[in-house]
Amino acid sequence: MLTGRTEVQVRAGAEADLEALTDLYNHYVRETAITFDTVAFSPEERRPWLLSHPEDGPHRLLVAQERHAGSGGGRVLGYVTSSPFRVKPAYATSVEVSVYCAPDAAGRGIGTLLYRTLFEALRQEDVHRAYAGIAQPNAASVRLHERFGFRHVGTYREVGRKFGRYWDVAWYELPLGLAD
Description:
Layout: E1 2-3, E2 6-12, H1 18-31, H2 43-51, E3 61-67, E4 73-84, E5 94-101, H3 110-122, E6 129-135, H4 139-147, E7 151-162, E8 165-175
Parallel strand pairs: 5-6
Antiparallel strand pairs: 1-2, 2-3, 3-4, 4-5, 6-8, 7-8
Helix pairs in contact: 1-2
């Protein structure tokens, strides 16, 4: 995909991405209520998270990386994950998805590209539903999810406290199973 003069490659996340992914996520930890983590992570603290997302299967980590013409890999522009929805066995065919873009990459189609690639891969797996929790307000994230067919299924009111206030989380669902 081309965004401006930059080509963007989506690929599986790798150990070499750990520092860049941690830095990107920590921006959202420190500056926003998009994530309910409240303390920034070191790359070592994030390593188990990275390793819990193999290259294939239902629980993936995909990275959007900038690639300039005539050069190798560039900086990480964003990432998307599919993770277990809940730990009990009956939930195994459901995943929770999240997408994060570098602040200066917002509005460039990176989130759309990442989700499109992830959902194409998940449709080849034994995944029936994808769920996304969106801290409110976040109109851009709601639009992105609705563009992919997510439907609002409920809102947890004042479920998280960060920056001295309570936040709602709206939950969205996307059917992915073959019979859907």
